Records
---
Amino acid sequence: MQDRADNRNSVLVIIPAFNEHETLPSTLAELKHTVPDYDVVVIDDGSTDNTADLAEAHGAICVRLPFNLGIGGALRTGFRFAVERGYGRAIQFDADGQHDASQIAAILAPLDEGADMVIGSRFAGVGDYHVGRSRGFAMGILRWSIQHLAGQKFTDTSSGFRSFDSEMLAMFATDYPIEYMDSAEALVLACRAGFDVREVPVSMRERAGGQASNRSFRLVYHYLRVLVSLANTPRRGPNPKAATP
């Protein structure tokens, strides 16, 4: 792994993983083939299978959590890892085979134009990703609510395919939400803090294996629960980048 000084110009791929032994090897192989110059850290979120051993066997850095924190806690660990080692940018990437490594360039490009955080959207006109009726209904409610809470429209508020600049990483290393639906709350936090959050269309695949973290019959309940939390999220000051001379 590169030292801290070199990492300022480097990209770290952060993969939160809980019992992903079925799909992690192919995910890491795809990343190695597509973005061989990027470091990859797998945050093993208290897995009970051999996820951590597979991550190391396939050349990834592995941070082993002693017990399951949930995806929000695992991601905050990954962001802290990136900040402590001085990475200038990071990619959030799923272990389950949904994300296409060839799309990484698309979500990095807006960072070059000044964006702080970029969302890879499944529903912005690229690919044919589909969701069930109950999930689609709940996601629609969440999109509408976040538009009003964040003051910005997004087509895919729960996408886990994202990129971040160093300022965004610094905030999320300490403040990333660790409760249910962390991805939606993170959008509101970033927008209300004045960061430049953008969305780009990407193609995604269905899960190649493992078990999805959300159950359809619980989605509406959990989405309504997170809306209460989001509505109480305070606004912060302007983007610290904008205040820098």
---
Amino acid sequence: MDELKLVVASNLIKLRQKAGMTQAELGEKLNYSDKTVSKWERGESMPDAYSLTRLAEIYGLTVDELLHDDTAWQDPVEKAKAAEKAAAPTFSSRMVTMVAIVGIWTMAVIMFVVFWLVMDARLWIIFACAVPVSLITLLVLNSVWNKGRHNMIIVMALVATIITLIFLFLRRYTPWQLFLILIPAEILVVLCFHIQGRRA
């Protein structure tokens, strides 16, 4: 019986403090004095059945939860959140990223096969186009799930692949000068990612 008094006392203290009430305010809600509430919280006496029912209503718990150690029960809001979290489907951000990238390359292969069957042209360019599309997808998903960690590297790779892609499209003109743009463009990317740095 003494153990039960201590469990109830501990629960009442935690619940009252969590609700931001004084012993007098709680006593007023129950039509008891703050001295009675103080005795309950010191484990000197137990609330009667009616008071336990009223306490359970005030705190949004069951009487059974009030009579058990607080590790056996949860706040109703936390309980609802836990149930919602359990019902929500879980997925791996890495797997979603992989599915998106592989999906892009699958589309590139499908286009390659279709164009190969229909006409004989420079089909390899389809795969060259899949690289920047993959990098853009990776950039977006990395920003969402990894808080942008390694985005600078992804953007640098994207700039390099776009310049290379332009070169490949204009290959008959041998525009090697395009690669001169690469160095200042990559420096610009690095500087842009360090704009929010230390104050001078």
---
Amino acid sequence: MPKENAIEAAKKIKMLVFDVDGVMTDGSITYDEDGKEYKTFNAKDGHGVVRMNKSGFITAIITARNNGTVQHRAKNLNFTELYQGYKYKLPALEELMAKYNLSYENVSYMGDDLPDICILEKVGLACCPNDAVKEVQEICNFKSVYGGGKGAVRELCDFILEAQGIEKEYIVCEGNNR
């Protein structure tokens, strides 16, 4: 069955779920000499997530890896839910859907690699960065023009807000803070 038109699907979204490596980051994993893992996140992507939270959406991360950096980022951006260490991601998504009484059509998921396909095949808005593997790109109804960790998350957030007619918030700088 072909995926629903992305704009129509986006109108039904109540929860956004993201993979981390290759989606919220560019997929690079850096280790120091002691084996400590480092990740780099995009500030614009983060602002998109914050806007979704402020607009009443449920935001979640489901990732196979277990990393303190991801935990810190999720807390910093006020993600609603964080599921780390989930090699099999679909049960985690189904748990989230049950918790918030949502159906697949209410879920947007952004993934980039083969382990994400089991979710992408089911959700209403299947999304990927433009550097996702070919198999993922072929089943998504929203493909960002940006790569993972390079604005793909932000583009998706803006797309859903626009599809649902939610105005962008602009911060106006007034006065002198010195």
---
Amino acid sequence: MTARTRVVIRKALAADHHVEIAETSRRGHATRLAQGAAATGTDVVVVLGGDGTLNEAANGLAGSGTAMAVLPGGSTNVFARTLGLPNEPIEATAVVLEALEEGAISRVGLGSANGRYFLFHTGMGFDAAVVSQVERRSGLKRYAGHPLYLYATLSTWHRHYDRTRPRFAVHLPGGTVIDDAYFAVCCNTDPYTYMGKRPLHLAPDATFDKGLAMLTLRSLSLPTILSVTASALGSGRRARRHRLTDYRSDLSSFRVRGHGPFPYQVDGDYLGEVDELVLRHEPEALRLVTPSPSTAPSAPPQR
């Protein structure tokens, strides 16, 4: 983000609205700023940042009457692109202003992991270990986002994650237990993430008005990883039906219990290791400014 871009966005927002600017300075700061805005009756908090900043702001606004609007300011911008916003922040500002003029604000459901809200997904096991490696090289992220993620994935698979044993068990409603999980993603929306301009679809059933979707991998063998990734570049159907995966949708709550501590991440933000996660769907938790349907992404091709 350049200073000029921020000035242009502020002028555009201030043309018809009273605008106050607040900049984050440390981890967790966006949550406190959003809480303060909600406490003073602010109508809308417009968040210009990456997915981690959006997550913090959403945690500060959930349950309040203050709405959140999204502007892409990170390296991947999964949530902004999921909403159908342009990946260029000034173009996205025009879309958000149009949505505000139309009063396009809806209450949407969020997920929660041990009480921490998430907008689009929580990753457990291998996925979180990759995010941890990326965050260790955070200075490179803004310049080499997608190549860095690819390098971190390969490096984690080879050297930084124990692939010799399952890491956790997924305890689903009805008593079903998947006790040999290496990697799992709990989705509140789809796609799971983006590879460049290509979305990765793991859980098309995941929408704001339904429960959570959960894809669990019971192997980290190279053929399994390649098969799931190739399928996710299309509709993800083969990934969900793979003999070494388990897929569930419209879940209201479930637990993940580790065979020892396991890593997890929320909306691309690494949060460390835990022994257990309780995941829940939280209906109508956040007021969200939504773009015009004409900007929504087209349906993925079926494979």
